Structures are given as structure tokens and as C-alpha cells.
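Can't paste images in this forum, so I'm doing it all in text. The chain is below; anyone willing to post the predicted C-alpha cells underneath?
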Amino acid sequence: MKKKYVKKIAVLGTLLVLFLGTSGFKTDFFEIAKQIEIFTTLFKELNMNYVDETNPAELMDTAINAMLQDLDPYTHYWNEQEVQAARINNAGEYTGIGATVGIKENQITIVEPYKDYPADKAGLKAGDEIIKIGEVTVADFNEDAGELLKGAPNTKVQLTYKRQGETKTTVLTRGEIEIKAVPFYKLLENNTGYIVLSQFNRNASAETLQALKDLKGQGAEKIILDLRGNPGGLLSEAINVANIFIPEGELITSTKSTVEKYNQTFFTTRKAIDQDIPIAVLINGRSASASEIVAGALQDLDRAVVIGARSFGKGLVQRPKDLTYGTQLKITISRYYTPSGRCIQALDYQNRDEEGNAVRFSTSDYNEFMTRNGRKVYDGGGISPDVQMETSEFSNITNAILQQNAIFDFATNYYYSHELDSPEDFTFSEKDFNQFKKFLASTGFEYKTFTEKQLEELKKAASYDGFEDEIAGSYGEIQKSIDASKEKAINTKRAEITGLLTDEIIKRYFYKEGLYEYYVQHNPEIRTAHELLNNQQKYRDILR
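Text version of the structure:
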């Protein structure tokens, strides 16, 4: 009760920390100064007079985070540790255990161990829940337990973890971890090069360029650039990657803001390495930010055919602002636009629905733009592909399945109940899909449709008008129809669900490297891109 009360009070004053750390004030200086003064006096009186002992640092963190949550998901306050973590992520190297981990509610779960790195060498697998780090029990640790996994190179730490209900221990030796921006590339049939670009860290353009040169040296005459699942990263690297294929002096992206100095344009600055080689770019609903800048520029300039599903739509630009004591404010300053003028941002955080969720543009509100060759393209958030692929989509029910970790958990169970000698031996069968549906039912999977939400509002209105008894029977029939439709939706979206399950299962046995090897033989998006690039007439027709 105390925490909730304090949060409501403290949120009023966080302007003190945020605005004193900036280089200048907006025109509403008086209002800002007024709120800072109010908060200063409030914060002082609260800490001096509250009935129980208070923690000023915790109050301030609560206030800051509560205020920023009302803006957008990308504006963050970073403490000293988070500032350092961001620098490490952009650099592409760090010291640690060599695994992606999931941290929530005092739980640490191994999501993906990297091949031949410390976690893998220690025998840790995806799905393992770490319950103890050294002598510290994770559930009892009040701060970020993930920090306990970090340490100097070659230092050892004992981990206690649960696997399939059994408690195990292992000793892990921390090491230097290098995160590759281009984890895989390969020459496919018909002189087609395939490059996976997984993130835009400081090495992204250099690694992409090296992969291109290597593939061309092997005879590549066409390129598939895979940006699926790429969350973005550094804007400068997005420009540099685009510059590999786009000549000097071309607009790649622009930013617009209510703050004049943040209205900027970004052009290529060097000669292209190869401005003629045919390109197919793969995107999906997890391709975001810098990925969308590259895909959007290549599409708007008719330099590549984009294949897959509409990208995420993360078109908000953040910039770190240094605060005191080594902390930072990562603040949204502007929006990204493609060369044709399309806004990449999908969600409007200034306008929210009744549940507080940001409003997304409907198709009826999309605006038409033109590529360099006069092709019609549309805004609405994200980049819409030239060739739409059902297997690349993330429908509402698929997203609900992902959010409840059903695919991850099913893959964990599958790994411990099936043997698999090579990726080529794997097929996700009809029987497997039925098992997955049974698994969903057994875990209490819940998915509330928009129709159900509206139906609940109808029940409230009927109760208010005194009609609840009259509509009770009809309500029950409608709910039965909705339940049947939800069951049908899982079957209808089988292709995209099966694709995600296949990805997760293959990784369990053969790591990311094995998954990419499986992709180049079986992935429908890669096959489509390969066929298109080898049909130059069709490729040119799309770009016209």
C-alpha cells in the first residue's frame, strides 16, 4: 500500500532529474521550473515527515520509471550498469557466460546457449532455470540477479539449475564473448549468395561487406540479405550497410521532430561496393528500427525486392543524454522516414485506447507514396514487402502463443523426448502439430480476442440497462462460436506457428549454425527469394 501511495506522489517530480541533465530547455521554461520547484519541496517533505522510514533512491527510481512509462516503451532511465551494458551491446563483445537469458520475477532461464562458449561448455541447455549463482539464491536476490553472471574473464562460478524437474550443478568459466553481426553466410545454387545480418552493432557493415566480397569471390551474382528477427541497432551502421549497395549521395532516411535540431537527413557518403547486383531482402514482424531503414531505402530506391511480412514498425529515434553520477536518459527525440517519405513508426503512443494501449493505424488510414520507379508503396508503420509470405507473418494468436512462451516450452519438452541426428532428418509432422495443440490446452493457454473484449463491454452495458437476463443465452452462444473460431485460428495459422516451432526445435539440437544450414535447404522465404533472383524477368517486373 505504501509503495503504491509513494508512486503516485513521487511521479509528479521526476522532471528535476530529467531536465537538469539536458543541454537546454524548451519554450515552456516557466512551467518546467514550476514543476521542478513543486517536486523539490514535495520530495523533501515526504522524506522528512512520512510515517515510515523512506528510501530516497527507491522513491526517485519509482517516480522516474512511472513517468517514462506514460511516454513510449523506448524512453528509459539507465543506471550506471545499464549504461555499460548498452555500450557492450553496441560494441559486439563482452565478458560473460555466452548465452541469451530470460530474467523475470527473480527467475533466470537459459534461452539460447552459444555454441562453444562458456555456458555451452558447462553443459547448460535452453530451458534450464538457474536457481543459484555461487552461494546466492536467485529467488531471494532483490536486485538484478543477471548481474551475478557477469565477471572478469577466466573467473569461475558455480551454478545450480533445474532441468526437467531435476536439480543439477555445474561450474562455469566466464570468457570473452564476441557477438557477430553476420553469424552466417553461404553460396547457394545458381551463384546466389545468402547473408544473415542479425543486428546492427559496430561491426555490422564491415562484416556484411566481408561476406559480400567472399561470396562474390566464390562466384555469387545475386544476393539474399536476411534481416528477419534483426532488432536494429546503430543508425550509422544502417547507413553504411545500405551504402554497400546504394551509390554516394542518396537519401537513406530522414528524421522529424518538434525539436528543430533533430530534423535531419542522412545520405550515403561513399561509392557503392556493388550498385548493380540483384538483391532480395527478407523481413518479418521482428525486423525493426535499423533493419527497417535498410529495407525501406532499398525498396524506395528500387534497389531490391523485399520479401516476407510487414516489419515491426519501430520508427522512433532514441538518443542517450548523460545525467549525473554516470547515469543516462535514453530519450525518444524524433521519428524515422524512408526516402519516399513513409513514416516507419506503427504505434501512436500519444493516442491510446480505453485499455491504455497505443493506437495502431488501420489500413483505411494508410497513405500512398511512390518509389523512384513510380511503384506504389504505403505507410502505416513498418515496411510492407513486395512479395508477401504467409510463413513470415505474426498473427494475433501467434503473438499470444509467443508471449506465453508456449513455443519455447514445447521445444524444451520435445528436445528431451526425441532424438535427432541431423537437421535434414527433421520434419514437423501432423502428429507433432496435434501434440502442440494438446500441449497448449494442458498449459491453460489463454487468448482473448478483440471480439471477446467487445462482448464483455456489451455485458456491462446490458447489466447497466438491466438486460443481462435477456442476453445471457445469446451471450453463451456467441462465446461458443468464438471458442470454435479460436480453435480454427490455430489451424489456419499453422504455417507460421509451425515455422516458429521448427526454428526453436532445430536450435536446441544444432544451435543457430544448424538452423541456418536447415534454412538454406527448407525455408520457404529463402526458396522464394532464390527462385525470384533466378528469374530476372520477374525480378525486373516487380521493380518496375
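The first helix runs from residue 2 to 10. DSSP finds 17 helices and 23 strands in the chain.
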